[in-house]
Inverse folding.
């Protein structure tokens, strides 16, 4: 069984202003880092259908984003002429990855697309994100394929406020997330637990390195996911907790992402035949991003 890689050149046409950290070059560096990895089942991320987006967002919001054209949506979030197409590939890639994994065509999948998604709330673009790619994929696994339980693990350095919003009242989804605190967007306190106690927030202090991260995952995140017995694990794979990242202050090294990937794969092996769909979120130091994505995807191919 193999690992699928979903991506599409349309995701290079989501253009942000000069100096913006969520830049086209990110995906180019990711593609270059993944090019030498053999044995990946390389696929095009398809365009999603409206119905996919509507699993998590109201029609009025979809229409507003689709109709907004090039420009600035909030302090951090921009659209260019190609952004809507890129966003449809990002959602479509995550949904297609779920389809491929559930069908047993591949063991697991990585979705290398942009814009990212974990800050997009129900009716609000935010933090470089337009649609909740991972939340939509989770709902697709639950409602489209009839899975009983899915877990979303988010190791991006920023809190996945959008995923938390979209899955807040979804009893069939566990959202387990670590984030630097304090840090933008400011949410992610352990007291935020979801309607069904289905949200686990694990804040990490600035300066937290790999040893403390591994301890937090061993004590809190992994046991909680283990107890949930997910039928699929989705990952919001942001690599901005890396020590080199310019947007945050955690001190993880590339090896820490390899360790975390290996542990999540082992957990997936125990509960769901290794079924994992991992979706790119943040990561803004181009070299650290490329290195970290490479060890993550190599870990998936080994898992
Ligand atoms: Zn981030």
């Amino acid at each position: 069984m193999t690992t699928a890689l979903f991506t599409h050149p349309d995701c290079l046409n989501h253009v942000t202003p000069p100096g913006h950290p969520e830049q086209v070059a990110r995906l180019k560096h990711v593609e270059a880092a993944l090019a030498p990895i053999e044995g990946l089942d390389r696929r095009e991320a398809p365009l999603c259908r409206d119905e996919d987006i509507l699993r998590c967002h109201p029609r009025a919001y979809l229409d507003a984003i689709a109709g907004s054209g090039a420009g600035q949506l909030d302090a951090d979030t921009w659209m260019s002429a190609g952004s809507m197409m890129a966003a449809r590939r990002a959602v479509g890639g995550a949904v297609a990855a779920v389809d491929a994994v559930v069908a047993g065509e591949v063991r697991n999948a990585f979705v290398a697309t942009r814009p990212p998604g974990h800050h997009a709330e129900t009716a609000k673009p935010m933090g470089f994100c337009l649609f909740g790619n991972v939340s939509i994929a989770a709902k697709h696994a639950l409602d489209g394929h009839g899975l009983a339980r899915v877990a979303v693990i988010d190791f991006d350095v920023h809190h996945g406020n959008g995923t938390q919003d979209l899955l807040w009242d979804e009893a069939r989804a566990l959202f387990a997330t670590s984030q630097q605190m304090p840090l933008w967007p400011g949410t992610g306190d352990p007291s935020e637990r979801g309607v069904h106690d289905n949200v686990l927030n694990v804040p990490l202090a600035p300066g937290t390195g790999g040893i403390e991260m591994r301890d937090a995952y061993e004590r809190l995140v992994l046991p909680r996911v283990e107890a949930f017995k997910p039928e699929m694990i989705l990952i919001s794979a942001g690599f901005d907790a890396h020590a080199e990242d310019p947007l945050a202050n955690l001190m993880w090294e590339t090896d820490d992402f390899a360790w975390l990937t290996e542990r999540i794969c082992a957990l997936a092996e125990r509960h769901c035949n290794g079924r994992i769909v991992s979706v790119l979120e943040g990561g803004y130091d181009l070299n650290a991003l490329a290195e970290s994505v490479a060890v993550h995807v190599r870990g998936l191919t080994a898992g």
